[in-house]
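Milestone 3.1: sequence recovery, worked example.
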């Protein structure tokens, strides 16, 4: 790293990223980025510290739309009364990350941009059908969180772009959400498997009317279990249909073996994880 730059506002930060596109890395919490630099995995010429840009630090609601800025930490999410009511599965995902020190420093956007296949916030945001708000010096665009991931540690965000926030619809009264994480211990562990779901039902007909199911640590990127979703939508609410959806999700996963787990174990556990998140989502509907 040749230079450390601290812009005072978003416009200045985007100008710097444009000027040094591909050679600069934005820094928010730094819980992943600093370790990567220390370990020699990356060596940017410029580090752009975003922490003075107050306009990126917010949790807002606009009718039923929730917006979260790029400097919002995992601890901010956990402590948000709004998110505990309107997006509890995201709160649960943020609670599962690291230690209190990591949650106090690390940002939710940083967790996404690190693009780990096992990112806990990724599956929660994908189940919420969340979008990233991405800005460059000349334009702003929106992209689904699920399509941002293109490979381990890789995203579709360009070198002159910055994810300035995330947005998603709050969970409604006929919806419920659930999150599940399996690690080698209860805290400070990277997920062996994780999953999240947001389920919508017709209470009078007792059927699933919509389903968003995401699974992580079982493919090169976190992914939506689309076949499992399709199997649920329009079907009766029953243990058999939940079991069938979980079986379908297991078939959509293609994990690897590593130091944390074998591929075969992950395959089996994703079925259990998906059953858990669907059941938790149903229990959350009042």
């Amino acid at each position: 790293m040749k230079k450390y730059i601290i812009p005072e506002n978003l416009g200045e930060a985007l100008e710097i990223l444009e000027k040094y596109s591909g050679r600069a890395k934005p820094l928010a919490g730094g819980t992943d980025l600093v370790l990567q630099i220390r370990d020699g995995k990356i060596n940017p010429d410029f580090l752009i510290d975003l922490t003075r840009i107050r306009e990126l630090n917010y949790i807002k609601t606009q009718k039923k739309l929730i917006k979260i800025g790029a400097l919002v930490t995992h601890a901010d999410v956990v402590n948000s009364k709004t998110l505990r009511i309107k997006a509890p599965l995201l709160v649960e995902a943020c609670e599962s990350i690291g230690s209190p020190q990591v949650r106090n420093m690390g940002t939710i956007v940083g967790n996404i941009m690190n693009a780990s296949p096992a990112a806990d916030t990724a599956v929660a945001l994908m189940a919420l059908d969340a979008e990233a708000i991405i800005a460059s010096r000349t334009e702003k665009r929106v992209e689904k969180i699920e399509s941002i991931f293109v490979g381990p540690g890789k995203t579709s965000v360009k070198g002159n772009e910055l994810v300035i926030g995330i947005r998603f619809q709050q969970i409604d009264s006929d919806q419920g959400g659930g999150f599940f994480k399996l690690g080698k211990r209860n805290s400070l562990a990277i997920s062996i498997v994780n999953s999240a779901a947001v389920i919508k039902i017709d209470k009078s007909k007792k059927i699933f009317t919509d389903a968003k199911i995401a699974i992580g640590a079982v493919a090169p990127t976190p992914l939506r279990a689309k076949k499992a979703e399709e199997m649920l939508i329009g079907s009766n609410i029953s243990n058999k249909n939940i079991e069938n959806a979980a079986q379908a999700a297991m078939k959509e996963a293609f994990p690897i073996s590593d130091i944390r787990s074998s591929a075969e174990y992950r395959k089996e556990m994703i079925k259990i994880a998906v059953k858990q998140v669907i059941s938790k989502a149903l229990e959350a509907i009042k």
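The mean pLDDT is 93. The first strand starts at residue 3 and ends at 5.
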